[in-house]
Specification:
By secondary structure, the chain is an alpha+beta fold. It has helices at residues 63-73, 81-98, 105-119, 121-131, 137-151; strands at residues 11-18, 24-31, 37-43, 50-52, 58-59, 102-104. A hairpin with a 5-residue loop joins strand 4 (50-52) and strand 5 (58-59). Helix 1 (63-73) crosses helix 4 (121-131) and helix 3 (105-119) runs antiparallel to helix 4 (121-131).
Amino acid sequence: MKCPYCSHLDNRVIDSRLNKDKTITRRRRACASCQQRFTTYERIEMMMPMLVKKDGRREPWDRGKMIVGLEKACEKLAVSMADIDTFVDDIERRLQDVGGKEIPTTQVGEWVMEALPGLDEVAYVRFASVYRQFRDVNEFMDELKQFLGERNGD
């Protein structure tokens, strides 16, 4: 593991801990050259299906892209990074459960839309406004009315 401070390759592990789901190992390391400490995270690399975009392009699953999108939707809300990580973990599990080689991004987007109200309702509205690409305020209001009706059991 290369030191992020001096690029030296020799370091030692000071402490290792598993996350609560026992799926990620957090390691505290100390560089043998500059003595700086840094943290690394280890997770099992899963074979994820390719994502098929609306225009037909294919691209690999990118956990980072999902996290950035959720961070934007949750900006200035009481949603922790741990909550976002757990949310993305759940999406990744669903991707794995599909078992195919490809999945449309629209399916992943629908999974996010289904689960996001459980994370934060304002984040849901923000994500929906970008994901649904509303052409005008009326379309946005229709989505809100539908969401509020589902939430109230109508």
